[in-house]
Design brief:
The protein has helices at 30-46, 68-83, 106-113, 142-145, 263-266, 271-285, 301-314, 327-333, 346-359, 365-393; strands spanning 4-9, 53-56, 88-91, 117-120, 126-130, 135-140, 160-166, 196-200, 206-209, 212-214, 231-237, 245-250, 256-261, 291-296, 321-326. By secondary structure, it is an alpha/beta fold. The protein has 3 domains: 4-250, Purple Acid Phosphatase, chain A, domain 2; 256-342, no CATH class; 346-386.
Length: 395
């Protein structure tokens, strides 16, 4: 039986936008272009490595309705694989999967343009045979994990077997927020009798079982991804039932820097002095194309804003972009208690407003009850959306 070489790539998040900086040639968001370039660089590297199959374990796109430029970018890269005759299987991740089944998926469009690529979105497990490779691929998209009955997966005893799925394996160290819509992978979906299990969703590349690996992401998305080393995996399978041999491959991505300045260092310093500390750090790092964040403790928000304004003018040649955050910003983004801002309960404030309006005779009880019901629901929806945005931005 010939060895089988597989490129396992994941979490490309085409269409991701952040930081409000534009590419001077196209006028598009620069981070969107960074993400597209990272995917293209990974495909370029894959084409040099004599692989038999490419698997993408979800979150090809960052939204269920990606922009035309993002769709075009994906189509071009898969066309490069098609032209070399390399088969590929792509599953839907939580970012690719519509919340309503009736919405449809961009994957159906991708299949029309890249007909030899197998795109598996939706809510059903699909079995994809590759008899010429002595291989069976079991594709379990994110949508299938949302069903009430957990999916089951059984290997084909006559071939080598790969399972692809997208979710969070319990026991993994969480980095940043848990995403809205994130699904856990049941232990029954990690059977030892699969030759390899290709996992997506967790952006830090690594082994979770002897036969199960996260490929990581091809770029960093928000400062919660600072520990991420962008890239993908080359997996070699030998005889059926033998352990996979996994090689990690690093690819180019925009650098990300984060520095913590404790209260002892900021104590009694003004905005100019704190900005000076950050400028010195940036000179030492010497990464002018990096996105950077300085987290300062013990500094009021007004001074942090002054520091950020100084850095916009003074740090242009030292770093691509710089953000200044406080403990309250970062800890709130991680769902922890704010340390330098008073806690605000928006629902409590809203309820007080309704009570005042009733007391003043501006609202009758039935109207007030209905407004309260709708308002509280909208507040919770807005807070969930903010939590998702904070997870993406890492602050």
């Amino acid at each position: 039986m010939n060895p089988l070489r597989i490129a396992h790539i994941s979490d490309t998040h085409l269409g991701y936008r952040a930081l409000g900086k534009t590419d001077p040639l196209t006028g598009r968001n620069q981070r969107s272009i960074d993400v597209e370039n990272a995917f293209a660089d990974a495909v370029t590297d894959i084409l040099k490595r004599d692989v038999d199959l490419v698997v993408h374990s979800g979150d090809l796109f960052n939204q269920t309705r990606p922009a035309y430029a993002s769709i075009g970018s994906a189509m071009r890269q898969f066309r490069r694989l098609e032209e070399r005759g390399i088969p590929s299987v792509v599953i839907g991740g939580n970012h690719d999967t519509p919340r309503l089944r009736s919405s449809g998926s961009v994957f159906s469009l991708m299949h029309l343009v890249n007909p030899t690529i197998r795109f598996v979105g939706g809510y059903e497990t699909e079995i994809v045979p590759f008899p010429e490779l002595d291989l069976t691929v079991t594709a379990v998209p994110h949508g299938r994990l949302t069903e009430p009955i957990p999916p089951a997966a059984f290997p084909n005893p006559e071939t080598r077997n790969i399972l692809i799925t997208h979710g969070f394996v319990p026991g993994m160290t969480q980095v940043g927020h848990r995403e809205p819509g994130e699904e856990e992978i049941d232990e029954t979906l990690l059977p030892a009798d699969f030759d390899y299990i290709a996992l997506g969703h967790f952006h830090i590349r690594g082994e979770v079982r002897p036969n199960a690996w996260y490929a990581g992401s091809t770029e960093r998305f928000g400062f919660a991804d600072e520990p991420v080393v962008p890239g993908y995996l080359i997996v070699e399978l030998g005889e059926r039932g033998t352990p996979p041999v996994v090689e990690t491959v690093k690819t180019h991505a925009r650098p990300m820097l984060r520095w913590r300045i404790d209260e002892e260092e900021t104590n009694e310093k003004d905005a100019i002095q704190i900005a000076g500390l950050i400028l010195e750090w940036l000179r030492e790092e010497n990464k002018p194309d990096a996105m950077a964040m300085a987290v300062v403790f013990g500094v009021p928000r007004a001074i942090r804003r002054q520091v950020e304004q100084i850095l916009r003018e003074e740090a242009a040649e030292l770093v691509w972009t710089i953000q200044v955050r406080g403990a309250s910003d970062v800890l709130a983004g991680l769902g922890r208690e704010r340390v330098d801002l008073p806690a605000i309960d928006l629902e409590q404030l809203f309820n007080r407003f309704l009570e005042t309006e009733r007391t003043n005779g501006n609202h009758d009880p039935a109207f007030s009850a209905r407004v309260g019901e709708i308002g509280r629901a909208e507040l919770r929806k807005a807070q969930a959306a903010l939590a998702a945005e904070l997870a993406n931005e890492g602050s």
